[in-house]
Amino acid sequence: MTIKEVEQITGLTRSNLRFYEKEKLINPERNVNNGYREYSEEDIKTIKKVAYLRTLGISIEDIRRVSSKEADLYDVVKAQRQSLDKQLSDLENARIMCERMLSSDKKIDYENLDIEQYVTDEKDYWSKNDNVFKLDTVSFFYMWGGNITWGILTILSLLVAVFSVGHLPAEIPVQWSGDTVRSFVNKQFVFTFPVACAIIRFVLHPFIWRCLKVNSIESESVTDYITNYLCFIALSVELFIILYVKEIVKHVTVILFIDTFVFIGLLLMAVYRIAGKRRS
Predict the structure, then answer these.
(1) What per-residue confidence (pLDDT) applies to 267?
(2) Alpha helices, H only, the chain
(3) What backbone phi and psi angles, to 5 degrees, belong to 96?
(4) How far apart (Å, rounded) are the C-alpha atoms in residues 207 and 205?
(5) Interatomic CA distance for residues 57 and 77, integer angstroms
């Protein structure tokens, strides 16, 4: 069967089917004459199983573990039910708190909100809702790990290469031993840095994703964070080479210091945001 026929049979989109194939959950044969995918009845059954388990909120990683016999389906479904029970309990508690706030005779507003009316032990309440604050932590990783940040870093790297290449000598340094340059390459090498950003995002990112055995939002965000930070380092090295040629800086430690400063600054921003959420 062709992918179009599978779309019609399963009701799933082509992007879903290709995603499952990318994640090695299905492996359709290829027609030797035209290279097109040819799906079997067994592939259809597998696709339906995967799609059904995804509707239960079971992660791709757990589905992969089950399909490869690394985990038992019963245990995975049981763990998912426990997770859903916890989410339902949290949602019910939140609903009850909302009802208490709405049942007040006075109209509530932010300026006059007094949490002591609804919460008797603040520390205990924060502890019971720790999952919410964990999500606040994740928002920091989204801030740094998103596609927009990656796009900004990549475009900056490309612009630096475009506007600097005409002002660079024929050869630029790429390797040092102490203060001594060990090797040079053609100045067009500066264009490898934006290319490196693309490789990091589209090639290295899936590799890191699998190494971390991603099965949660947090882990996926950490993967994005790592790859974007590697792009940031690539941009930093590119800038260092240009500044070194222009005799503005002489030691890579300057760039490393800036990278560290930015990294710590981002962490402090995250801590500040989390602390602000806890105070509100």
Answers:
(1) 60
(2) 3-10, 14-22, 41-55, 60-67, 73-102, 122-128, 130-145, 147-164, 192-199, 205-211, 217-245, 252-279
(3) -60, -40
(4) 5
(5) 10
> Please, which pLDDT band fits residue 279 given cuts at 50, 70 and 90?
very low
In this structure, which long-range contacts are made by residues 45-48, counting pairs with CB atoms below 8 Å and at least 24 apart in sequence? 47/6, 47/10, 47/12, 47/17, 47/20, 48/10
User: How many Å apart are CA 150 and CA 142, to the nearest integer?
Assistant: 11
Tokens standing for residue 102:
């709405």
For the cut 90, the answer to whether the pLDDT of residue 104 exceeds it is no
- At residue 149, what are phi and psi to the nearest 5 degrees? -60, -45
User: Which DSSP symbol is given to 107?
Assistant: P
SS (H, E, C) 194-206: HHHHHHHHHHHHH
Residue 259 identity (one-letter amino acid) = D
Dist. CA 167–CA 164, nearest whole Å:
5
Contact 25, 48 (CB under 8 A): no
pLDDT of 137 reads 54
Q: What is the pLDDT of residues 117-166, one digit of tens each?
A: 888 888 887 777 776 665 555 555 555 666 778 888 999 999 999 999 99
